[in-house]
Amino acid sequence: MRTRRFQQVDVFTHVAFRGNPLAVVLDGEGLTTEQMQRFTDWTNLSEATFLLPPTPEGVRGGADYRVRIFCPGRELPFAGHPTLGTCHAWLSTGAKPRGECIVQECGAGLIRIRREGEGEGERLAFAAPPLRKSGPLAEADVALIARGLGVDRSEIIHHAWCDNGPNWRAVMLASAERVLAVKPDAAILGALDVGVVGPHGKVGVVAPHVRAPGAADHPIDFEVRAFFPGVSGLAEDPVTGSLNAGIASWLIGAGLAPHRYVARQGTALGRDGRVYVSKHGDDLWIGGGCVTCVDGTVTI
Q1: What is the pLDDT of residue 184?
Q2: Burial class (CB in 10 A: 0-12, 13-18, 19+), 18
Q3: Which of 21, 34, 59, 255 has its CA 20 to 30 A from that of 90?
Q4: Around Cβ 213, how many Cβ atoms within 10 Å?
Q5: From its phi and psi, is residue 219 left (phi > 0), alpha (psi between -120 and 50) or beta?
Q6: Is the pLDDT of residue 92 over 90?
Q7: Which secondary structure element, helix H or strand E, spans residue 65, and what is its range?
Q8: In the predicted structure, residue 213 carries a pLDDT above the cut 70
Q9: CA distances from 80 to 46, 179, 182 (A)
């Protein structure tokens, strides 16, 4: 065991303690998979990451660093809020990218990350990886999700696979208010990764709304909630980059959302996360603010 640099970063927020926290070990060299998993489980956070030098293959692809991403009980090939939070921690050390974008190597391959915005509204955004599975859900899955969410099947107006690493199934309800009223049944949904999205106002139309701190010119278009199997049963994630990336690919591709929009997540948990989506050409960028809440060392 030795002392290693450590940060806890709040992601998808410009206000500390209102987003989704992430544990980042900035020097993961020499740690075994078992040690990484044990530390992740101990943090009691949704994810922890471990920074490492890129592999030779990653270096050839332009990677600036490699990251291993863990959630309680398992390692993930990719996850959104760990990608942005880890990049934020890496940049805070004074590290400089090799090219115009920061390039992260992870289990899902090479992920590009860029800086967006200015001043207090500055944020990071990752280029969403392609969906591994897309298209409408099987009707049996939709019926099961409806029962698990406590809504009538007719209330699910659209649905799709949004699998980009995590095995997300996503459904859309008619309104943000209905999304926030959902009370999921763990006995029914306990084995599924489920995302629920609802529009603020009409789908694809920006409507006036209370602005996010630090992002006063961005109204909210969609409300999102994410449910997944946790260590002790069904859990709800405060703000989920991978799900929002999958949902954005689905909604924009289906013409259900404009090429630029803002989603809110975490409301039901007392958080106030903001996810900034923009599509440019073939690239779909998923962005958010990051705030360092803890900066110190940990002995692992």
Answers
A1: 93
A2: buried
A3: 34
A4: 15
A5: beta
A6: yes
A7: strand 65-71
A8: no
A9: 12, 22, 24
